[in-house]
Design a protein that fits this description.
Elements (H helix, E strand, L loop, with lengths): L3 E6 L6 E5 L4 E4 L5 H9 L10 E3 L5 H4 L2 H8 L3 E4 H19 L6 H7 L2 E4 L4 E4 L2 E7 L8 E6 L4 E5 L7 H7 L4 E5 L4 H6 L5 H8 L7 H11 L6 E5 L8 H14 L6 E4 L9 E2 L1
Parallel strand pairs: 3-4, 4-5, 5-6, 10-11, 11-12, 12-13
Antiparallel strand pairs: 1-2, 1-14, 2-3, 7-8, 8-9, 9-10
Helix pairs in contact: 9-10
Length: 278
């Protein structure tokens, strides 16, 4: 039994990843337009018609912008907690109804029109041959979650959009063989960025904001185990980070702790990563 994994894109403008097992084809987040999601799936020989489920981490636009459109059109079940469901529907009603040409005249319509599967944060549930563990993360959304997705070939951890790494997060993602970890910004670049308001800088730097390159490297050192084999640095800011900076900081940390067994990749905003097969 093999598992295929592709980050279809990750960054401040959109996030979406794909996991395929013998029994399930799952998206984690749907932060691109339905058209973009279709195109990115097509680039790896897949189509949205065959998706089994979409898992949502939280309701910010870079994680849900294509969600209702693609879930409605292709009848894809959506898994999230109740607060994220409510916030997602509210966000579409307030911001995107005209852009997406969706008739969002009533929240009740979208509670019934989408095949929602609601979990409580902290729950574990099964999806075909996949076991999905959910856990709370510190971010400025209604009830944001991370995931540990257990498959027969290996475990996939998702920890992005968090201002700091809690003991709970460390405990829940430590079993990961493949880890998607936020490395959002370089602190100096963020502080010096002329296009960011001070209030936004404070939000990003806060305990419910985003992880810096240094914070991501520190987290990796705490998470590290012999079982972790593949590390993806995700959600890089276009304005306040550079792939080479994120890679340099993490490489130094991995070298420092002797984690020579770990393969690291940078997830990009514009193009999917190469597909990993376990």
């Amino acid at each position: 039994m093999s598992v295929k994994f592709t980050i279809l894109g990750s960054g401040s403008s959109g996030n979406c990843a794909y996991i395929e097992t013998d029994g399930a084809r799952v998206l984690v987040d749907a932060g691109f337009s339905p058209r973009q999601i279709r195109q990115r799936l097509a680039s790896i020989g897949r189509t949205p018609e065959n998706l089994s489920a979409i898992l949502i981490t939280h309701e910010h636009s870079d994680h849900i912008s294509g969600l209702l459109g693609i879930a409605d059109k292709f009848h894809i079940p959506v898994y999230c907690n109740r607060a994220t469901q409510d916030a997602t529907i509210w966000t579409f009603k307030q911001k995107w109804s005209k852009k997406t040409n969706l008739a969002l005249e009533s929240a009740d319509v979208w509670h019934s029109r989408i095949d929602w599967h609601i979990f409580n944060t902290g729950d574990t549930f099964k999806l075909a041959d996949v076991s999905i563990e959910t856990f709370s993360i510190p971010h400025d959304a209604q009830d944001p979650v991370g995931y540990l997705i257990r498959t027969a070939a290996g475990n996939f951890g998702f920890a992005t959009d968090l201002g700091h790494v809690t003991k709970l997060v460390l405990d829940r993602i430590r079993p990961a063989n493949v880890l998607v970890l936020e490395s959002n910004h370089d602190v100096k670049m963020l502080q010096d960025c002329p296009r960011r308001a001070w209030s936004l800088k404070q939000r990003i730097l806060g305990r419910h904001g985003h992880l810096s390159n240094v914070a991501a490297a520190e987290a990796a050192a705490q998470i590290m185990s012999a079982e972790l084999r593949h590390l993806y640095l995700a959600h890089l800011s276009r304005e306040c980070n550079k792939p080479e900076l994120a890679e340099e900081v993490m490489s130094e940390q991995l070298h420092h702790i002797g984690a020579t067994h770990v393969t690291m990749q940078i997830a990009r905003q514009d193009t999917p990563c190469a597909t990993l097969e376990l």
